[in-house]
Design goal:
Shape: globular
Distance between the termini: 71 Å
Number of domains: 1
Oligomer: single chain
CATH superfamily: Cytidine Deaminase, domain 2
Helix content: 25-40%
Length: about 170
């Protein structure tokens, strides 16, 4: 006997309610405002402090901050959400966000629910891939910051050579 479409979809809707974060839209934190109201994100500490209240600490989240040439925040958006110890992200989605926001620069952030802010080997490989893409797109990635509930780690401070070639001279 054929089932009605609503009977087929009912279990999926129930699963979506239980796992609400799987269907939740990405969070956009800052809206376009006048230049005088935009915060300037100059340091990794400022970025981590700004972002920490918006993070869920029970799973990894990957955020991007679109910045102006003077590092004023245009918009921050959670682009990817993962599990407790993994988050899949792709360069095309990161740079789609940057182009859509008309960003001159990007700052990338993600959290480690474990509380350990040290970058993993996968974090380093992904950051290297992203900085190579940023060179081709001519949208510099200024830093990739790992945030925990109590601390942060700037990947640029640890290995500045990964970011050196993408920061335009002043």
């Amino acid at each position: 006997m054929l089932k009605k479409p609503e009977e087929i979809l009912a279990p999926l809707h129930t699963a979506a309610r239980v796992c609400g974060d799987l269907t939740e839209k990405p969070r956009q934190v800052t809206r376009r405002t006048s230049n005088s109201l935009r915060p300037r994100i100059i340091t990794a500490k400022a970025a981590a402090s700004w972002l920490r209240p918006h993070l869920r600490m029970d799973c990894e989240e990957f955020w991007a901050m679109a910045l102006t040439t003077t590092q004023e925040l245009i918009q921050a958006e959670m682009l990817f959400r993962g599990t407790v110890d993994c988050c899949l992200a792709h360069p095309r989605d990161i740079f789609r966000f940057a182009v859509r926001m008309n960003a001159s620069r990007l700052l990338l952030l993600h959290n480690h629910p474990s509380g350990d802010p040290r970058p993993s080997p996968l974090d380093w490989a992904f950051t290297e891939k992203i900085t190579r893409c940023s060179w081709m797109m001519e949208i510099p990635v200024l830093d990739h910051v790992i945030v925990t509930d109590r601390s942060y780690k700037s990947m640029m401070a640890i290995r500045p050579h990964l970011f050196r070639d993408v920061i335009p001279p002043k």
